[in-house]
Amino acid sequence: MTPRRTTPLLVLALVCLHCGGEHSASEGSASKPSQTSSGASAPPSATQQTSAPPAASASVAASAASAPAMPSRPLYYEGAIKKDDLQDRTLRELILMRNWIYARAGNTFRKPWLDEFFRAQAWYQPSEKMDEKKISARDKENARAIVDFEAALGQPDLEKRRDEVLARKKAGTATTEDDIELSLLSQRLGTWLGDTGGAVAATPLSDPSKLDQLLSMDDLNTLSRRDLRMLRNTIYARRGRPFDSKVVKSYFKTAAWYKPNAGYSDSLLTEIDRKNIAIVRSVELSVGGPDHENPDFPKEGWVWQA
User: Fold this and answer.
1) Which terminus of the chain is more exposed, N or C, with fewer CB under 10 A?
2) Cα 194–195–200 angle (5° rounding)?
């Protein structure tokens, strides 16, 4: 018997009242980019952006002031991205590369580490509505290339990355970027690898055991629309649901717990599963609706952003 909880209507009301909006997973700035060195804080554009970005919170400003140097290779490419441009990148860098495209168009971010990173860039101008005209056909092709590269990373590669980060933590040389990387590796490997009370808190995506209980708003308030859609799929995946999408299949194939079941049906979902699916959907609605496929790229485009 499930313990008495807040009524569904109250849950939905709380969702609408307390869940802030991250716009669709697009990101953007105001100027047309040229290939940008990731070590520069100038706008990724041939035309210099002179207006300052909107004021950030004190915590964001403090984080920006102490922000580490960016990678030596560019995070944004005006030309076509090649495999060599992606090779040996951390998961964090790959996500920054994807989201740089949309940050240029003014997208805002619910993930604190992404929000803090882009607010530290002088060219970034977050907007209530992303200017999709600033996302070129080349940008979309590059976003797809990055996602395909991420999806192709297999379990042995991800485990090697995990071991390298854990070794740095054991040696006392780990950075905040390593904490972010561990949280991202946790999502892909299906088990929480971070520290309790560490720089990056566990979410239901990085620690699926949280799905054994009814989700709270605190569990969801830093998840992007892309994350929320993945989280819904995670609830089904834990019961063995197979997926048609190549990207979703690739996402779950590296999770140790995922065992596709050809005989899957929704009858395998528990009462908690069904309530959590409803809660995730209600949060998706509060941030602009479920993040469905990009109409330009059916079936896969939604997974490129955030």
Assistant:
1) N
2) 70
pTM of the model: 0.73
pLDDT digits 0-9 by tens, 181-211: 999 999 999 999 988 667 788 999 999 999 9
> Would you state the CATH architecture of domain 25-152?
Up-down Bundle (1.20)
Q: Quick one: residue 197, left, alpha or beta (phi over 0 = left, psi -120 to 50 = alpha)?
A: left
Q: Per-residue pLDDT tens for 227-262?
A: 999 999 999 999 999 999 887 888 899 999 999 999
Q: Indicate if the alpha-carbon torsion angle 11, 303, 32, 109 is positive or negative.
A: positive
**Rounded alpha-carbon distances, angstroms, from residue 93 to 120, 204, 209:** 16, 22, 27
Burial of 244 (0-12, 13-18, 19+ CB in 10 A): exposed
Measured at the CA of 250, the angle between CA 25 and CA 252, to 5 degrees, comes to 90
CATH for 204-300, options being 3.40.50.720, 1.10.10.60, 1.20.58.1690, 3.40.390.30 = 1.20.58.1690
Q: How far apart are CA 118 and CA 29, in angstroms?
A: 10
